[in-house]
Amino acid sequence: MPARIKICGISTPEALDATIAARVDYAGLVFYPASPRAVTPNVAGALTARASGRIAMVGLFVDADDATIAEALAAARLDVLQLHGSETPERVAQFRARFGKPVWKALPIASASDLARAAAYAGAADLILFDAKTPKGALPGGMGLAFDWSLLAGYRSALPWGLAGGLNLANVAEAIQQTGAPLVGV
Ligand SMILES: O=C(O)c1ccccc1NCC(=O)[C@H](O)[C@H](O)COP(=O)(O)O
């Protein structure tokens, strides 16, 4: 089965239209004000209305409180919540129960022990997104950094997972071949 594709950081109608035209599976909207790709709830509402069900919309949050996510959901039609901060398994489970949406948890990876943290999210998250660990003080994602994909060679898990971090046209095929990733995020 081909890998599913998520393009993150959509912030304009043009980018959304191009993503839909490319038959991408998921479009990500960043609700993290520090990101250069951040959208307000109003802009997100307009983008999800424009998408009108033609692509699944993922709302990305970093250590957000309940009110921030509730405000985003009130304004925009989000299909999935992606948590890209230091959210614990308990917090992930709370968000899933409270908002009734699938929750993806991003985990920063630099070593095999980082990968092992995924097991703690079984039963809480719907999918784990392995992304590159970013430098202290930098954004926790969207930095164009790749991690050592050999860490994922032969990775098997009952919990669905995906790969992100530094993927581009030149390397994404190799990344999928090396890791067997069922989903890739860019
Ligand atoms: O994209 C952002 O601005 C962002 C900010 C804060 C946390 C996560 C963010 N992006 C998350 C994603 O899902 C990216 O696709 C993923 O980190 C890979 O990014 P890149 O290496 O730039 O392709």
Automatic annotation (TrEMBL):
Transmembrane parts of this sequence: none
Leading EC class: isomerase
InterPro entries for the chain: Aldolase_TIM (IPR013785), PRAI_dom (IPR001240), RibuloseP-bd_barrel (IPR011060), TrpF_fam (IPR044643)
Gene3D superfamilies referenced in this protein's UniProt entry, alphabetically: Aldolase class I
Pathway connected to this protein: Amino-acid biosynthesis; L-tryptophan biosynthesis; L-tryptophan from chorismate: step 3/5
One annotated GO molecular function: phosphoribosylanthranilate isomerase activity
Gene name of the encoded protein: trpF
Record flagged with keyword Amino-acid biosynthesis: yes
SUPFAM superfamilies the record matches: Ribulose-phoshate binding barrel
NCBIfam families from the UniProt entry: PRK01222.1-1
Sequence similarity: Belongs to the TrpF family.
Record GO biological process: L-tryptophan biosynthetic process
HAMAP family (UniProt xref): PRAI (MF_00135)
Annotated CDD domains: PRAI
Source organism: Comamonas testosteroni (Pseudomonas testosteroni)
Record's protein name: N-(5'-phosphoribosyl)anthranilate isomerase
Record domain N-(5'phosphoribosyl) anthranilate isomerase (PRAI): where: 5-184
UniProt keyword terms in alphabetical order: Amino-acid biosynthesis, Aromatic amino acid biosynthesis, Isomerase, Tryptophan biosynthesis
Signal sequence bounds: none
